From TrEMBL:
Its cofactor is pyridoxal 5'-phosphate. This is Cysteine desulfurase. Its EC number is 2.8.1.7. InterPro entries: Aminotrans_V_dom (IPR000192), Aminotrans_V_PyrdxlP_BS (IPR020578), Cys_dSase_SufS (IPR010970), Cysteine_dSase (IPR016454), PyrdxlP-dep_Trfase (IPR015424), PyrdxlP-dep_Trfase_major (IPR015421), PyrdxlP-dep_Trfase_small (IPR015422). GO terms for molecular function: cysteine desulfurase activity; lyase activity; pyridoxal phosphate binding. GO terms for biological process: cysteine metabolic process. Coiled coil: none annotated. Keywords: Lyase, Pyridoxal phosphate, Transferase. Pfam families: Aminotran_5. Residues 26-395 form the Aminotransferase class V domain.
Amino acid sequence: VIPFDIERVRADFPILDQEVNGRKLVYFDNAATTQKPVSVIEAILSYYRGYNANIHRGIHTLAEKATADFEASRKAVKEFLNASSTEEIIFTSGTTMGINLVAQTYGRAFLEAGDEIIISGLEHHSNIVPWQMIAGEKGLVIKVIPVLENGELDLETYESLLSERTKLVAFNHASNSLGTVNPVKYMIDKAHEVGAVVLVDGAQASSHIDIDVQALDVDFYAFSAHKLYGPTGIGALYGKKALLEAMPPYMGGGEMIREVTFEKTTYNDLPYKFEAGTPNIADVVALKAALDYIAKWGKNNIAAYENHLLQYATDQLTQIDGLRVIGQAKEKISVLSFVLDGIHHQDIGIILDQQGIAVRTGHHCTQPVMDRFGILGTSRASFALYNTTEEIDKLVAGLHRVKKLMA
Ligand code: PMP
């Protein structure tokens, strides 16, 4: 079942080779952020060591090399998403900024009082709050697609919410707290039938699922590099060219202009219109290294292996008395959220950490999901390509220890 040499993979991630609280680290917090392979770390180092320079306007050799690598990364993102042009790829600080950019530019320019935005009950706070902010300012109405008991979206209700008043629909490709993979193509098509534009939050999907923005016909797609073995604080927003051209800029400053006088300023062409100021050059360069790393093993191989880990973990954990898995969608990314009868998730997290096992506990920035299931939080184990079934066995043993200590 293992489509690659797991020991070779693990050797690429030096951080994994350490002890935490006297035990070999088991890192199961990949949905929060993945670890970084040596090639990504080296990309950052070699940029600062070898050719740090400001991009685009420089005529000297270092500036040209920095610009070339920066733009090569944009091309790599374009290919990663199968966008039709690099003009449609805007570098951001991550998914959060991508969503805020669309809410503050598209939302401000094209949405009017009484217009409806539909989001889903599975959203991360970053795909809720930006819409509430613009809705409050402009008198927009937010409708929410309910979540079914198994963690899937209630698509019947979604269809009944759609109307000619719906101007924008935003939902995630995959849920960070439950792992649910949403039927994005179907949901996009339904939104387009009523003329709404669609933003998909790809933060969790991008390292597990092949993305083809043209086949999906999605209007906006946002992701973060740090969820796919790249650095933190960098990501990209895809937008259809016609939409991006019609939208006003987000931030004003250098780089995003064509000509500035005190009377009138004209804006730069895409994608630079949306990239004010000196960008995070080193991390953009390293983002390409992360995409190359995924391509080296193959995203489908990675997904197949992670799915094997998810199945194994689900089988093993559900044998523990009093353990309940939250989120049993038919299609999931490798995220396993669970509660243990009568034991607070924080205690679970602390006792597992004492055994060197890193899981995430709490609401996972999805408080409405916790409210939906009547819980305060879950413990969440999320798997990446360097995890193993032996590590899952340690988690099972760790949870037995939690039960013993908390009994
Ligand atoms: N959406 C989802 C589904 C996420 O999991 C996350 C990160 N936890 C975000 C958005 C926000 O990503 P970032 O913090 O990198 O902007």
